[in-house]
Write a structure and sequence with these properties.
Protein name: Cytochrome c domain-containing protein
Radius of gyration: 27 Å
Keywords: Heme, Iron, Metal-binding, Oxidoreductase, Signal
GO cellular component, one term: cell envelope
Subcellular location: Cell envelope
CATH class of the largest domain: Mainly Alpha
GO molecular function: cytochrome-c peroxidase activity; electron transfer activity; heme binding; metal ion binding
Number of strands: 25
Length: about 650
């Protein structure tokens, strides 16, 4: 193979520093762009299975509280990591081994679920109370995870995939993605309840309407779903309707095998097309010379091995040794790939750095802690400011796939309930109890029509006291005693805990599967017997919720001209004006042939968002990303979206900002 001098720096990237700087024979052939990831013969990639996996990955109903999806922690806009993991965020802070937030051993993790039981009742966490629990490490990127032989920072998800319900080996080798899926849904911190197993998870999935909590579903996926049940989707993907833990894992793993990022400037460069600036190319050269490429090796930018690099003391996180039982792995973590790294909000397994500049400074000073097994390559480097800037430049644009940054297919996603305006909102007010503070409501779960278990908690109240939750169409007064009734519900419980403000509890109720409830606004407030409170009753701030149907049906008011003889309803887009994406919703009163198109002011077709010969009755929500059918970003301006059915048509306007 002929040596291409334009790619000299690329070759250096794959060499250890000692070889990169040595004199010798001509360099080896350049790296090649990443091929598609391998797939096990026992679980080949199919379109149906990938679509099913995408649906499951983004469905918050998989979690016990219906508030967390796999996608909550892994989003393209943050490079496949968790957008909620923001330094300084109490919600995303795990207090570390000492159990106290605000100290040096804190970890930036991912918010999970409130500790809860199989009945839906909230339980008290000694660390988080009735708040969302937080994982003990940052979420690794799921993009390009399909290349890894083992998953998680410590590699505990192995290549052999074992059916979680039968114990049979399903994939002998190459099934680390399937193995990884098995952890979070049954973790009582991340997505599960105390004692949850995979039979529970499978039963939840089988009973759910796919992506019912999503306020917006990409058009292609919505077309594939076509209003079908999970049983029908599993039939298409696997040949019959059985919903099992192994199949859930295999579908999600299949979807993740479609999330490989191979369209970066770095890929173009190593394919022979010069695509880097002089500074970026200098950074790539330096990346190999100073030893970064010893671990962040090859075109994947990871050796997929485990190293202790001095990020934190080994006593604070044992790392790989828990899996390998090898002292050489004490505190060691897997080398993360650096593709799309500049999009991530936090770096290292504990999230201690928020910029790549800080990461480069860390390695330049040789790490912050030491141990006998510390990687030899982590040593003081003596980099100049110009060299540091070049390294950061190389890790930014050259390693970023524009599809990942923009969230376009295959990296697009359904909207999440937990990121929408559908989450109940805590208001102000309340009456303080004996502890000097008002009790606090915990209202996180979705008020979805048809939800059999909707749980609301209270904390910071008098322990052992009787507490009443009132849900009413009007806000219950805070200071007029306990209401005798509620127009929607009035529920009573005895709080656990003791002391003037250490009491806690929760109540659960079902929400009827009734379209007449869609859009109904309710106000809730807790009332707690407390002789030390004015009038003998402490009360919480009120909270507001709005009952909704599948895909947020019933929560938006129709715009002008959006109705047509009661057979269809086209809603105002939200938001409008918009820059990145907007949600277009419509309701069908009966099955119909449907097409939803976007047009420019000249009446020219811009985007076909939905086209189905027979769509079932119900609510629909589609996201328009401001692109035309060819994938090009459209100019800012006024556009019209038109819903056409065999029962009639409706048109509305949307504005895209430049």
């Amino acid at each position: 193979m002929r040596w291409n001098p334009l790619l000299r720096s690329t070759v250096v990237l794959m060499l250890p520093a000692s070889l990169a700087l040595a004199q010798g024979p001509p360099p080896p052939p350049p790296l090649t762009p990443l091929p598609p990831p391998p797939q096990p013969a026992e679980n080949p990639v199919t379109t149906a299975k990938a679509n099913l996996g995408k649906t499951l990955f983004w469905d918050e109903q998989v979690s016990s509280t219906r508030t967390v999806a796999c996608g909550s922690c892994h989003q393209a806009r943050t490079g496949g990591s968790d957008p909620r993991s923001l330094l300084g965020s109490t919600r995303a802070t795990n207090p570390g081994p000492d159990g106290t937030r605000g100290t040096a051993d804190d970890v930036l993790g991912s918010p999970g679920v409130v500790l809860n039981t199989a009945s839906g009742a909230f339980s008290w966490s000694t660390v988080y109370g009735l708040g969302e629990q937080v994982t003990g490490r940052t979420a690794p990127s799921n993009i390009n995870a399909a290349y890894a032989p083992e998953q998680f920072w410590d590699g505990r998800a192995s290549s052999a995939f074992v059916d979680p319900q039968t114990g049979a080996t399903v994939i002998a080798a190459g099934g680390s993605l399937e193995s990884q899926v098995l952890g979070p849904p049954v973790s009582s911190t991340e997505m599960g309840h105390i004692g949850r197993d995979w039979s529970d998870v499978a039963a939840r999935v089988a009973a759910a309407m796919p992506l019912a909590l999503s306020p917006a579903v990409p058009a292609d996926l919505l077309n594939w779903l076509s209003g079908r049940t999970y049983a029908q989707l599993f039939t298409e993907a696997f040949g019959n309707a059985a919903v099992t833990g192994a199949r859930i894992a295999m579908a999600i793993a299949t979807y993740e095998r479609t999330l490989f990022s191979t369209q970066t400037p770095f890929d173009a460069e190593i394919a022979g097309t010069p695509s880097l600036t002089p500074q970026e190319r200098a950074g790539m050269q330096l990346f190999g010379q100073v030893g970064c490429a010893g671990c962040h090796a090859g075109s994947l930018t990871s050796d997929e091995r485990f190293h202790y690099t001095g990020v934190r003391p080994v006593a604070e996180d044992s790392g790989r040794i828990v899996v390998s039982h090898d002292l050489a792995d004490l505190g060691a973590m897997k080398t993360p790939g650096l593709r799309n790294v500049a999009l991530r909000p936090a770096f290292m397994h504990d999230g201690r750095f928020t910029t790549l500049v800080q990461v480069v400074d860390f390695y330049d000073r040789g790490g912050d802690f030491t141990a006998p097994n510390k990687a030899p390559a982590v040593r003081p480097l003596g980099l100049t400011p110009q060299q540091k800037a070049a390294l950061v430049a190389f890790m930014t644009r050259p390693l970023t796939d524009p599809r990942v940054a923009a969230g376009t297919a295959p990296f697009d996603k359904p909207g999440l309930y937990s990121e929408s305006g559908l989450v109940p909102q805590v208001l102000t007010g309340g009456v303080a109890g004996g502890g000097g503070l008002a009790p606090q409501p915990v209202a996180l779960e979705p008020p979805l029509a048809g939800d059999p278990v909707f749980t609301v908690g209270v904390t910071g109240a008098k322990g052992g006291a009787e507490a009443v939750l009132v849900l009413d169409d009007a806000e219950p007064p805070a200071d007029q005693g306990v209401p005798a009734s509620g127009s929607f519900a009035r529920l009573t419980t005895t709080l656990q805990g003791s002391g003037a403000s250490d009491g806690f509890g929760s109540v659960s109720l079902g929400v009827a599967d009734d379209a007449a409830l869609y859009g109904r606004v309710l106000y809730g407030r807790w009332f707690v017997d407390d002789a030390s409170a004015p009038g003998g009753v402490a009360s919480s701030p009120a909270f507001r919720l709005q009952i909704f149907g599948a895909n947020a049906a019933g929560v938006l008011a129709a715009g002008p001209g959006a109705r047509n003889a009661g057979t269809l309803r086209l809603y105002a887009s939200e938001p409008s004006p918009f820059r990145e994406s907007t949600v277009l919703r419509f309701d069908l009163a009966s099955p119909a042939k449907v097409r939803l198109m976007v047009y420019d002011l000249g009446g020219r077709s811009v985007r076909r968002l939905f086209d189905r010969a027979s769509a079932p009755a119900g609510g629909y929500a589609l996201s328009w990303d401001g692109r035309d059918d060819a994938g090009r970003v459209v100019p800012g301006g006024v556009y019209f979206y038109r819903l056409e059915t065999d029962h009639g048509a409706a048109t509305a306007r949307v504005v895209r900002l430049q």
